[in-house]
Design goal:
It contains three helices and seven strands, in the order αβββββββαα. By secondary structure, it is an alpha+beta fold. The relative contact order is 0.19. Strands 1-2-3-6-7 form a five-stranded antiparallel β-sheet. It is 28% helix and 29% strand. The protein has helices at residues 25-41, 129-142, 153-169; strands at 45-47, 57-60, 75-86, 89-95, 98-107, 110-116, 122-128. The structure holds nickel (II) ion.
């Protein structure tokens, strides 16, 4: 199931997503569709609001870009909450909803994450480096926040105007 990825400045990207309470086939189908869409678009993470579903669901595969599809390792995170964060790391980030733009963002180097599996089991996991950065970026999406919001005000304004213009002519 291919889904359409919403692009900035689509207002749905600014909405808060709701916790998932029903762990049924529809959730599995949405997760599978998001994964397929993420692979097709060449991303390593995708949050449900990016495909217009205001649900607290994230798919991640840090190996999405590998030549060899055998090394792919898809992960699903439902209702994720960051319980603790430590350290700092700067990463050049991009986003499927903000095409053709990257920027350096500083985030926690390590996080303690609590989430549910797509079948509803509670999982606790410590994440570091790129995995931690990716989850922080995706969890921001669940709150209507985008990585360009971290830019200094003047730069942010310039970038947003450019992206709006770009979206109009696309
Ligand atoms: Ni993103």
């Amino acid at each position: 199931m291919m889904l359409q990825v919403l692009r900035f400045p689509n207002p749905l990207l600014r909405q808060k997503s709701k916790p998932v309470t029903t762990f049924d086939d529809d959730l599995q189908r949405l997760a599978a569709g998001m994964l397929e869409t993420m692979y097709r678009e060449g991303g390593i993470g995708l949050a449900a609001p990016q495909v217009g579903q205001l649900k607290q669901l994230i798919v991640v595969d840090l190996h999405a870009g590998d030549e060899d599809q055998a090394t792919r390792s898809p992960r699903f995170y439902v209702n994720p909450v960051i319980r603790d964060r430590s350290g700092e790391t700067m990463t050049n980030e991009g986003c499927l909803s903000v095409p053709d733009f990257t920027a350096d963002v500083t985030r926690a180097q390590s996080i303690k994450l609590e989430y549910q599996s797509t079948s509803g089991d509670t999982v606790r996991e410590d994440l570091h480096g790129l995995a931690a950065v990716c989850l922080q970026h995706e969890i921001d999406h669940l709150r209507g926040k985008l990585f360009i919001d971290y830019l200094p005000p003047l730069k942010r304004q310039m970038v947003k105007q450019r992206l709006v213009k770009q979206a109009r002519t696309a």
